[in-house]
Specification:
Largest sheet: 6 strands, mixed
Number of helices: 3
Distance between the termini: 22 Å
Number of domains: 1
Structural class: alpha/beta
Strand content: 35-45%
Shape: globular
Radius of gyration: 15 Å
CATH class: Alpha Beta
Number of strands: 8
Order of helices and strands: EEEHEEHEHEE
Oligomer: single chain
Length: 156
């Protein structure tokens, strides 16, 4: 029996973030979230729906009393979503990680695009993106720092 982890998202609360491709800034935001997204072979639209709801509703921004009590929707923050297959690195054996569990482009690209579209619809404004398969330079100023790991199959 094969164990599937689910779609993975590494969420970072940022005061700024950008994605540069071939020397050109592809996306840039001020305050909000940088999401590194890993897609596995067994992931579906259900995984996307769960992540979008969880990410946009997660209360990780400070309220007037300094408590993490506001979501990105509450603050009007921005989001960048970057596809990152290396979130599925398996480094248990040897020194060279295996990425066999990461979805191939024919599966991953439609789910990545779905994640972008559904997050845009929920946020009510466009989200920034990386470019699937491109060599990207991702810069960020992690605010807090706040970094949260989500996995759709584990429900956390």
């Amino acid at each position: 029996m094969r164990y599937f982890c689910g779609m993975r998202a590494l969420i970072q609360r940022v005061s700024s973030a950008s994605v540069t491709i071939e020397g050109q800034i592809h996306a840039s935001i001020g305050g909000g979230l940088l999401i590194l997204l890993g897609i596995e072979t067994a992931d579906t639209e259900k995984d996307v729906d769960w992540l979008v709801k969880k990410i946009t509703g997660m209360r990780i921004f400070s309220d007037d009393e300094g408590k993490m009590n506001l979501s990105v929707l509450d603050t009007g923050g921005d989001i960048i979503i970057v596809s990152q297959f290396t979130l599925y690195a398996d480094a248990q054996k040897g020194n060279r990680p295996s990425f066999i569990r990461a979805a191939r482009p024919d599966t991953a690209i439609p789910l990545y695009e779905m994640m972008i579209a559904k997050t845009t619809a929920t946020l009510g404004k466009p989200v920034g993106t990386g470019q699937f398969g491109a060599d990207m330079q991702v810069a960020l100023v992690n605010d807090g720092p706040v970094t949260i790991w989500l996995d759709t199959k584990e429900g956390k």
